Amino acid sequence: MIRVPGKLSLSVTVGVLSQSSLNSHFHTKHCPSRRVAVIKQGPLTSFWRPISMASPIKGLLNTSDPSARGAYDGTAAEVDRDAYHSRWESMWAPGLVAGQAFDAGASSGALLHALETGLVDVRDKTCFVPGCGRGYDVASMAKKGASAAIGLEISTTAARDANTYLAGCDGVDSDKAKVVEGDFFKFADTFDVGYDYTFFCALHPTMRADWAVTWGRLIKPGGMLVTLIFPVDPPRDDGPPFCVHPDNYTAVLPPNGFENIYLEKVPEDISHPKRAGREFLGIWRRKLDPAAAL
User: Fold this and answer.
1) How far apart are the C-alpha atoms of 198 and 133, rounded to whole Å?
2) Model confidence over 159-196: pLDDT tens digits?
3) How many secondary structure helices (H) and strands (E) does the chain include?
4) pLDDT of 33-78, one tens digit each?
5) Which class for 83: exposed (0-12), middle (13-18), buried (19 or more C-beta within 10 A)?
6) In whole angstroms, what is the distance from residue 96 CA to residue 102 CA?
7) pTM of the full predicted structure?
8) Which of 18, 104, 231, 278 is the most exposed place for a label (fewest CB within 10 A)?
9) Residue 109, Ramachandran bin (φ over 0: left; ψ between -120 and 50: alpha; else beta)
């Protein structure tokens, strides 16, 4: 059972969320209205090498409405997806090393904390991590007992480097943890648990609706999608990474069969240092009845 303060208990086939883990571990209070606290906005800290866009993103931000921060309003031109995706190989191919650019060198403390406390339970479950990079999160889920932990990379070099990393990880069964090369939007399989971190923000905003549709197809009914929402930054019109806001997720996931069961700001002491204060953790349950999304 999953219990959320102020809400009824929910029967969920994956994950464990207890009152004690919410209060004693995260020291926060769930917002039943799903409105999130205002974040103190400091200087923008970029952690990815800039990738120039072929055309400017017009109308990307609507700063007059706080709920629309970082939201794409439909006026930007579609991008060439194949060309956009190919940019990632151009970053990996020269030899991206651990800790360089967007590679943080380890799983986020927020994910490790959620796995350790039982907020996210992957034991004996199939897990999927698109845009997994070197595979740190794939390894973390495998070590916590996932029956299968599959990462996905659009870059040939990234997939190769990730599998090399996983092969050298103590406590990781190579038969249960691997990274494959492919396109998230075309991937064909289903999983109990999905994890999305620095993936949503890496996609051009015109891809966000399809992102939610794809997750709705990949996560089994009753399954869980864990979103580590980053970077929640002051509005800007460049990327990737594109600035995001929790409301960007609540706008596209519920119409595709997901209900939010947890949404909180990540305590600064468990984020990567340069990402502290800029992250929210959201957990979404895939409804058992797909028609309930309508």
Assistant:
1) 10
2) 999 999 999 999 999 899 999 999 999 999 999 999 99
3) 8, 7
4) 333 332 222 322 233 333 232 322 222 222 233 333 343 344 345 6
5) exposed
6) 9
7) 0.72
8) 18
9) alpha
